[in-house]
């Protein structure tokens, strides 16, 4: 019975766009390929996204895209290359969303995630979707360290604003602008991301 109820709630495809285009300048090597849980940081995020019932996963690559893409199973996901990755995360948001609208023009919402939050899991994604329907808010964001961030779900009413982002602007700009339309869910350890070798060493030593 529980499984039936869950499937009924997720009876249509929800797009999960994973932003993985950065060059990991502070780390000095591609964070997407760091070994984690017998896999890599990026593949772990993809695996969790694919566990969401009826999910549709897009991965946006950029720096080191040849090396990153050759390790991914293209039968399970959709990969798009962002040639403007150096201009900042906004270009990857725009690229990923444009890819979604090309492949699934009738999409009502999408989730943006990043590849370097090692503790992200399918339950986080599912909670975003569940509270999107339950709360009737059109932005559902993850809450950690007294801020709101990824993974974050946006209704299509915000797609045009997302497509207008530029430079180093991230989706947080839109979250702040429309606080009255935001619902937050707690993401334990969501503040942990991998930016430096120290971050990674701490992660694997725990």
From TrEMBL:
Superkingdom: Bacteria
Domain MobA-like NTP transferase: 17-179
InterPro entries linked: MobA-like_NTP_Trfase, Nucleotide-diphossugar_trans
Ranges in coiled-coil conformation: none
CDD domains reported for this sequence: GT_2_like_f
Pfam family, one: NTP_transf_3
Descriptive protein name: Nucleotidyltransferase family protein
Organism: Flavobacterium soyae
